[in-house]
């Protein structure tokens, strides 16, 4: 037993600890404090992450006495309330209310037999990219690791029969590299094969607006890396992504990309939002080819998704195809990202505000869990 207990029902905050907020080694301390054998930690985490139980009482291979002991120190707090907005194209946007009444959004995108979940890492965003709705909120706060993981578990709770997540992208609200500790903790839980969600790191992609000095840290996580380039000169990037480009100008960013320790058979992804009349000319495409010369990569073009009170516009399809063909002719692998979920403001750059128009369908979440339900 530890001399000074870390977990007390009468701790200063007055609340028992949320089991989901513990990383594995802190949970081991809790188990030790309870005087239980060490292997109980994996057992406990399997209940949390593999079986996704919502109360300690559901942990049926713990004895009644053990469950009572655990309940005195801890509880399970998942999202309090979730709304699901369904787009006419099958995309589902999940709006989750956090403990402090803020909300975050995750988007589930079905496409050609795949099911991709786009996760948020901050409430709002540290950065100020001019074409992004989330940026207009400013940063409300960083998400905790368990709030990133809960987005995945909440969606898993709502998958239909036969539906399985095939990939995760950290591309929702926020800049993941501005909240790296929480992202690291979340990835550890999402990828753990013994007690965690068991999602392979190669199926997870982290997208950054270009925080060059932290790219090396991403390599250590084993996930894929995407960089939102969006401009081909510093003058242009300064206008579109002022904060991040002042910190990490283009040459600095591309040098970090070239130095990135890419594992065999992997490549970087460069995202490029196409803004009509701003960064979508043939000269832009040619400059982009030069910038990416020698980098093992693919390019995702994202035609701008509109939201109200924004001066940018989506380029015509013909311009998008022209831009793509310049890149293709230069030998780059380039894809145009389908903009899914636009009718529920669920597409890239549209997260952060509930639609003012009536949603297509608003489904209250199953499994709504009040904090008090644990005590019953
Ligand atoms: N901060 C991270 C992840 C969130 S943004 C990043 O910048 O990568 C995810 C992607 O959406 C980025 O590639 C961004 O450039 C793009 N994006 C932002 N607003 C957009 C909009 N209105 N239309 C299309 N893409 C947008």
Tally of DSSP β-strands: 15
Give the H and E element order.
Answer: EHHHEEEEEEEHEHEHEHHHEHEHEE
Query: What proportion strand?
Result: 15-25%
Mean pLDDT across the residues is 90
Task: Write up what this structure looks like.
By secondary structure, the protein is an alpha/beta fold. Helix content is 29%, strand content 19%. The strands form three sheets. An eleven-stranded mixed β-sheet has the order 14-13-12-11-10-9-6-5-4-3-15, covered by helices on one side. It has a two-stranded parallel ribbon with strand order 1-2. Helix 1 crosses helix 2, helix 4 packs across helix 5 and helix 10 runs parallel beside helix 11. It is elongated, with a radius of gyration of 22 Å.
Summarize the structure.
The protein is an alpha/beta fold and 376 residues long. It is built from eleven helices and 15 strands.
Question: How would the blueprint of this fold be written?
Answer:
Blueprint: E1 17-18, H1 24-34, H2 40-50, H3 64-73, E2 74-75, E3 81-86, E4 92-97, E5 103-111, E6 114-118, E7 122-124, E8 139-142, H4 145-157, E9 167-170, H5 180-191, E10 204-208, H6 215-221, E11 224-228, H7 234-240, H8 242-247, H9 250-258, E12 268-274, H10 282-291, E13 297-303, H11 317-329, E14 333-336, E15 362-364
Parallel strand pairs: 1-2, 6-9, 9-10, 10-11, 11-12, 12-13, 13-14
Antiparallel strand pairs: 3-4, 3-15, 4-5, 5-6, 7-8
Helix pairs in contact: 1-2, 4-5, 10-11
The protein binds S-adenosyl-L-homocysteine.
């Amino acid at each position: 037993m530890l001399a000074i207990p870390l977990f007390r029902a009468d701790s200063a905050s007055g609340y028992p600890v949320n089991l989901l907020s513990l990383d594995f080694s802190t949970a081991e301390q809790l188990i030790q404090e309870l005087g239980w054998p060490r292997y109980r930690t994996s057992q406990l985490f399997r209940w949390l992450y593999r079986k996704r139980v919502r109360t300690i009482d559901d942990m049926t291979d713990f004895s009644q006495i053990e469950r009572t002991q655990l309940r005195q120190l801890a509880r399970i707090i998942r999202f309090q309330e979730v709304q699901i907005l369904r787009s006419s194209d099958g995309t589902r946007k999940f709006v989750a209310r956090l403990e402090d009444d803020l909300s975050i959004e995750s988007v589930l995108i079905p496409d050609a037999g795949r099911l991709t979940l786009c996760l948020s890492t901050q409430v709002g965003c540290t950065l100020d990219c001019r074409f992004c709705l989330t940026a207009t909120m400013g940063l409300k706060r960083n998400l905790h690791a368990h709030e990133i993981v809960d987005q995945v578990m909440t969606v898993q709770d709502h998958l239909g029969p036969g539906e399985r997540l095939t990939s995760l992208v950290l591309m929702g609200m926020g800049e993941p590299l501005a909240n790296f500790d929480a992202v690291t903790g979340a990835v550890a839980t999402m990828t753990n094969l013994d007690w965690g969600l068991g999602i392979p790191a190669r199926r997870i992609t982290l997208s950054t607006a270009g925080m060059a000095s932290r790219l090396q840290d991403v390599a250590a996580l084993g996930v894929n890396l995407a960089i939102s380039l969006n401009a081909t000169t510093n003058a242009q990037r300064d206008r579109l992504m002022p904060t991040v480009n002042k910190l990490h100008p283009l040459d600095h960013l591309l040098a970090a990309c070239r130095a990135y320790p890419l594992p065999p058979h992997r490549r970087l992804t460069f995202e490029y939002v196409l803004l009509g009349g701003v960064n979508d000319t043939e000269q832009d495409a040619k400059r982009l080819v030069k910038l990416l010369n020698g980098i093992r990569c693919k390019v995702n073009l994202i035609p701008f998704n509109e939201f109200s009170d924004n001066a940018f516009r989506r380029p015509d399809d013909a311009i998008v195809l022209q831009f793509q063909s310049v890149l293709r002719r230069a030998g780059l692998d380039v894809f145009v990202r389908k903009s899914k979920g636009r009718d529920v403001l669920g597409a890239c750059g549209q997260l952060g505000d509930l639609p003012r128009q009536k949603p297509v369908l608003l489904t209250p979440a199953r499994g709504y869990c009040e904090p008090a339900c644990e005590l019953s």
